[in-house]
Specification:
Elements lengths: L5 E5 L6 H12 L2 E5 L3 H5 L3 H24 L5 E5 L7 H7 L3 E6 L2 H10 L10 H19 L2 E4 L7 H18 L3
Parallel strand pairs: 1-3, 1-4, 2-3, 4-5
Helix pairs in contact: 1-7, 3-4, 5-6
Length: about 180
């Protein structure tokens, strides 16, 4: 595979996608495109619960349009919405792109939501909410990923974690190990 001209970032909330995308773009001297409105994060319900079946279809179509638009740009790191991989249309568009799945465990998510930039969700059982999202999305993220980067350190070491994660991608790009 030749060197990518753009990189798409997927993963769960609390994975550090925003910090990661910003740091990766800075290292590559590329532009960041933030296409992650984080709707679920602030409302505390799944996108399907928020928008309903027809609303989700329209939302997914819009997300696919964002991907298609960004596929015509070079030197961009595109941060995508958490639910993006649930859409077959979006997965198809991403299949020809370099996609980094920033993987995170539920304990790490909980720690980062307690101490970091990601606010705690307005839900009664946050762990159950996150477990459900992992169950619904992990396989999709794995399927679209060109490279999986496991973000494992808690919020107190986030800068080191982001740097390590970015360096893993840079090493993969340099050695074509993806």
């Amino acid at each position: 595979m030749k060197k990518p001209r753009r990189i798409f970032i997927v993963g769960h909330m609390g994975a550090g996608k925003s910090l990661f995308a910003e740091a990766l773009a800075k290292k590559l001297a590329w532009q960041v495109v933030d296409a992650n409105p984080s709707i679920e994060r602030y409302i505390g319900r799944s996108i399907n619960d928020i928008l309903g079946e027809h609303g989700v279809a329209a939302f997914n179509h819009t997300q696919a349009e964002i991907i298609a638009y960004d596929q015509h740009h070079d030197n961009v790191v595109v941060l995508l919405e958490e639910c993006i991989a649930s859409s077959a249309q979006c997965r198809q568009l991403l299949s020809s792109e370099f996609v980094v799945y920033l993987k995170v465990s539920i304990p790490t998510q909980l720690s980062r939501m307690k101490h970091g930039r990601v606010p705690a969700l307005p839900v009664d059982d946050l762990q159950h909410f996150l477990e459900k999202q992992h169950h619904e999305r992990d396989a999709f993220y794995e399927a679209v990923a060109t490279l999986v980067v496991e973000s494992v350190v808690n919020a107190s070491n986030i800068n080191t974690t982001v740097e390590d994660d970015v360096n893993q991608v840079l090493r993969a790009l340099e050695g074509d190990k993806y």
